[in-house]
What we know:
Elements: H1 12-19, H2 23-31, E1 67-68, E2 72-74, E3 92-93, E4 107-111, E5 119-122, H3 123-128, E6 132-139, H4 148-152, E7 166-173, H5 176-183, E8 191-196, E9 203-207, H6 208-212, E10 217-219, E11 221-222, E12 225-226, E13 236-238, E14 251-257, H7 264-269, E15 271-272, H8 279-282, E16 288-289, E17 296-299, E18 305-307, E19 310-319, E20 325-331, E21 339-340, E22 342-344, E23 353-361, E24 364-374, E25 397-403
Parallel strand pairs: 4-14, 18-25
Antiparallel strand pairs: 1-2, 2-3, 4-5, 6-7, 7-11, 8-9, 8-14, 10-13, 11-12, 15-16, 17-19, 19-23, 20-21, 20-24, 22-23, 24-25
The structure holds ligand MTE and molybdenum atom.
Amino acid sequence: xxxxxxxxxxxxxxxxxxxxxxxxxxxxxxxxxxxxxxxxxxxxxxxxxxxxxxxxxxxxxxxxxxxxxxxxxxxxxxxxxxxxxxxxxxxxxxxxxxxxxxxxxxxxxxxxxxxxxxxxxxxxxxxxxxxxxxxxxxxxxxxxxxxxxxxxxxxxxxxxxxxxxxxxxxxxxxxxxxxxxxxxxxxxxxxxxxxxxxxxxxxxxxxxxxxxxxxxxxxxxxxxxxxxxxxxxxxxxxxxxxxxxxxxxxxxxxxxxxxxxxxxxxxxxxxxxxxxxxxxxxxxxxxxxxxxxxxxxxxxxxxxxxxxxxxxxxxxxxxxxxxxxxxxxxxxxxxxxxxxxxxxxxxxxxxxxxxxxxxxxxxxxxxxxxxxxxxxxxxxxxxxxxxxxxxxxxxxxxxxxxxx
Length: 404
Ligand SMILES: Nc1nc2c(c(=O)[nH]1)N[C@H]1C(S)=C(S)[C@@H](COP(=O)(O)O)O[C@H]1N2
Ligand SMILES: [Mo]
């Protein structure tokens, strides 16, 4: 894996480039945060539902390459040519509209009763800290939720993503630990809560040990560019292997706490609710809070796909939270027999893996199923994790393909 410690200066030109934004942001600037009132949590019923379509979009980037949803832009995996998701194709999950943040006025607060001193760090200070670069995938815990009815017979509430609420990018910025150490961490600290500057004040807490992991970073750059507005300009956390909801965009505050932190995102929003997670065991959460993601694989094809008869090299992406996927298999008979797919380099510990398979496609309707396994033997289970909000679905995914 590529890791580099470097000190770099953010040039004025970078600022101007990063700050040049489209009409949605201009509208936001004119109207303040009025549009944020209806922050929709994980609910996402699709364009045109509930009058949402009349509102200005929540994003700044060109939505045309995406599957567009009210609050989300879903990546079409088939548009990714190589290994990295280009910034223009990276999915967007916004609980409120992308805010316009003036880099000159920006500061990041480090505070809370676990901090030895309270700090306000401006962007040039953040830029001057040693940088850590990681290539990491980021996935929404609700990715695949739209396939819940097809795979489990039940509809789960929340954004009806198919397979495109995931991407992989090179992220660069100081480790969160570096910033925590600037303030000084009191030994009683247990949790670190990160708060965004967007209208919803989106926040998410993690245990101190995860916050101190050197790969948990405050990213200032994404694929070599200043963070795009929709992805958290000027600073976001990236918490590899954990639910995308931990990777807080437009990061405004880091709160160190000597007590466990409970807020909506770990009591009701990002929790596993169902018979297997009795509320009494998790109070004040309604179920098991989601931290780590699960091993998954998906073909980079439209759903359903249409192919000409003949030889094809198909590809897809596989990912596991605790190290790279070491095997991907595929099946033409619903998992009765499996063939081996090839994992394509690079193989990086925090990234997703690209895989390829060769298929002589015969005319007719087919279903291709893929299954990934990581080095520790974690694989995609045959039984779905049944939970009300449809999180962490990772059964081997059948992909409908029409040939001819
Ligand atoms: N401030 C803020 N951070 C946020 C969110 C948000 O709405 N506001 N959404 C979270 C969720 S649920 C996900 S899955 C990821 C998505 O990151 P992306 O939009 O860069 O793909 O951002 C997370 N960080
Ligand atoms: Mo998410």
